[in-house]
Amino acid sequence: MKIAVLGTGYVGLVSAAVFSHLGHQVTGLDIDKKKIKSLSQGKLTIYEPGLDTLVEQGLSSGRLSFTSDYTGAIRDKELVLICVGTPPLPDGSYDSRYVFSAAEAIARNLTGYSVVVIKSTVPPGTAVKVEAIIKANTSCQFSVASCPEFLREGSAVNDALHPARIIFGVKSATAEALLRKLHQKIKAPVLIMSPASAQLVKYASNAMLATRISFINSIAILCDKTGADIMAVAKGLGLDPRIGQSFLSAGLGYGGSCFPKDTWALISFAKSLGYDFKFLQEVDRVNQQQIDYLIGKMGQVKGKILTVLGLAFKPNTDDQRESRAVQLINKLEKLGATVKVYDPIIKTKYIDAYQALTGADGLILATEWQEFKELDFKKVKRLMNRPIIFDGRNFLEADKLKKLGFKYYGIGRS
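Predicted structure:
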């Protein structure tokens, strides 16, 4: 199939690379000409495991190309995927202008029937608005569909190739048939529903996962107050088949490009419908408090040298959007601490964790990179001014560290 992908961020670039890998002819479009030049040379603008290989293969095979030319990208395409950004506005709602601009550009460059597929995360009702924009700017026949993505940064390629489910929000049999053809090599359950339902599935999924994280963090605080251990509690909780073990890791809370903004957007969207989504507001409030809760364990930080390990919002990505590590660092510096930072992927002034830890009064684990668990902690203890560890992800081996003479503080750890 011939498809165009508008937007080369995380969703767009992964989608373009994966669909070219599956044998489709894919053109990735972005208005950022510098980015397009880089991608055309096989130089990625983001870090995502395995993505560089797929892009290189796509370029070499001729099935993948990148351009800033709307006319060339959209002409004669069976499917046009909208994967542009939808950043949050001050009130928490999505900024949909990029989606609407993309829709107008698509309409002005259509040469025949195409299915315009919204993959960007947007509120229910957006498909209707996109359809109206396109209809007002073209005489060509078209359909609008929604096919939300469920990609986890750090494992996006695998998630795209092996999804738990594929959702088509469609109103026409032709659109459904073309989407099925696009995904025919991917083995996963396919659910057919309205575009509004498909868009709400995306919101609801991320809100549910955010809820689990805030819930387990609240339980972790009870563990601290009672001497219980959150690791044992979470394991006992997760073995209940009605609950499951995923997203029950206590820590600094959730960050990234999806959970925070999707939670805010769903709260804002509910408000626009006259519904006060108090439950989800509390989920967000709990998440916002987690950083202060960890800092509270540190006592007086003014004048202290503290080393934060990790800048990305999660391991295996370089994405710092709504990173808890970044927010933690900002708060510590406002409280008068000197903060040294190291991340395996994101460039800092330190060549490795050991250099960053030299002379530190405390180690704060903010991102659970495997590299940090494998540090030589005997060496770390020698380098630090004071052997104190604050594990913001309950990731390190507490018993081992205590035996080495470290004072270890996790979240909800006995």
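Summary: The two ends are 56 Å apart (CA to CA).
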